[in-house]
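Researcher: Next sequence.
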Amino acid sequence: MAIALADLLDEKHVILQLRSRKPANALREIVQLLALNRKIDNAKDFLDQVLAREQAHPSVVENGVVFPHARTDLVDEIVLGIGRSRAGIHFGETALRARLIFVIGVPERLVNDYLICVGTLARLVKDDAIRATLLRAQVPREFLDALAAETL
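Model: Next structure:
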């Protein structure tokens, strides 16, 4: 049975004010939050895998949103950490800035579930109204409610 996006949403995994201005540091902030909440055991290795994937295949910023991820045995289930940057952070080879960053860790055995979840997220954040709600949310619960409401 496929994992529902709503099952991955946790307000403890959302940072609405990323401090970092560089991609690697922003990813580190989000990964550290996941580690703090025991979603990943080895934050350094997980971050290294996300960064290696970004180096080899840079994430594409679309509508100010980016989905850096790692397929890894460092997680037992799909994990999702979310960061928001008011100013935006340059990702990839373009000059485009990402304001919403969805970091995803996925075990190899759940690649199909990952594709369903990231597809759902991508569809949601393409919607201007949903994206605007995400960008102005004051607290993580409001942010996640905007995503969850559309997946029901």
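Model: The mean pLDDT is 91. The longest strand covers residues 79-90.
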